[in-house]
Amino acid sequence: MNQAIRPGPDIAQQSSGQLQLSVVVPTFNERDNVTKLFHKLEATLSGVAWEVIFVDDNSPDGTWDVVRGLARQDSRVRCVRRVGRRGLSGACIEGILASSAPFAAVMDADLQHDETQLPKMLALLQSGQAELVVGSRYVEGGSADSFNKQRAGASALATEVAKRVLRVRVADPMSGFFMIRRDRFEELAPQLSTQGFKILLDIVATARGELRTVEVPYSFGSRLHGESKLDSLVALDFLGLVLAKLTNDVVSLRFLLFAMVGGTGLFVHLGTLYVALKLLDVPFGEAQAAGALVAMTSNFILNNFLTYRDQRLKGFAILRGLLAFYLVCSVGLFANVGVAFSVYKQQPIWWLAGAAGALMGVVWNYAMSGLFVWRKR
Ligand code: GDD
Ligand code: MN
Fold first, then answer.
1. What pTM, to 2 d.p., does this model score?
2. Ligand 1 contacts CB of residue 109 (under 6 A)
């Protein structure tokens, strides 16, 4: 086939021809919001050659289907449908990388972000005054009145931590509304975390003050339809991001959570051992085995709930995963003891040998669990 590829009619019709702005909208269960957002973009960006890329994580409500419908009628709309994956940051990253305009904006689908700021944000980038423009709730003229007390407190705390610990000099690094030069973004992209939801904070922290940034105030509105996808566990994602950035990505949140869950396993093991030995009069060997089994099971449940919550196993897959986890951990125990022995033979320091063995065990369990238990589809 030797057909020439032509630009879609809508883009060709644009006054300036060349695509100027790609708006990236991550979606999960937003079917009632996307059409409204598209029309609002259309109205506000009338003088601009733009496109919108919805990145949908296979929403059960079929958001992708609604977006496809829009895309069929207007080639400025595109739909990236991801299957077997979840995550706001990862969706934004993929959306920006799939875009082709020199500037990319990220915004919520639920109309909480004020799209009428987009032309102003674009002008700041085009004039070269900024490489990153942040829609900010925390500069003069901005607000987040729609937040309840709890959420406002959490947001303020996270912002404070980000500023102090990561030395970020942006008033609202938690904003989910921003526009960036795509070339600068692509330089940073390989170092960004796909886990979690704080993509702007990640960008700013990774750039280490090298991105000329301007903040424009806006008021964070109320969600049109549906509900927020951010639950209280996002605090964990946030901590993980702070840790990763502080340690230059040596420590990943997933590994840290996995190791912490392993730590709780020790207490579960000892507790079970105590109950079996002292209260149920079970012989030591059996009690120890029961302790190990209960600890592995509770580790599995916690990991499925926390460490791998973006890939949580459900239904029958839980059973298969649990069995695989038992297997992985059993081999991990051999690795643990083996390493501890060989260290001890060379250097008979009990705690050093013990710690080396434990580290080997957790690294093994972590690596193998990622491969065989919570493997990416
Ligand atoms: N693809 C994809 N995958 N999209 C997601 C996911 C996901 O796992 N989780 C959420 N989204 C989409 C939502 O559908 C929405 O369009 C957008 O990401 C933001 O999610 P909300 O559920 O609306 O979050 P929020 O309003 O509570 O918080 C937002 O505003 C804050 C303040 O600006 C987010 O943008 C936060 O990042 C931001 O801090
Ligand atoms: Mn929202």
1. 0.81
2. yes
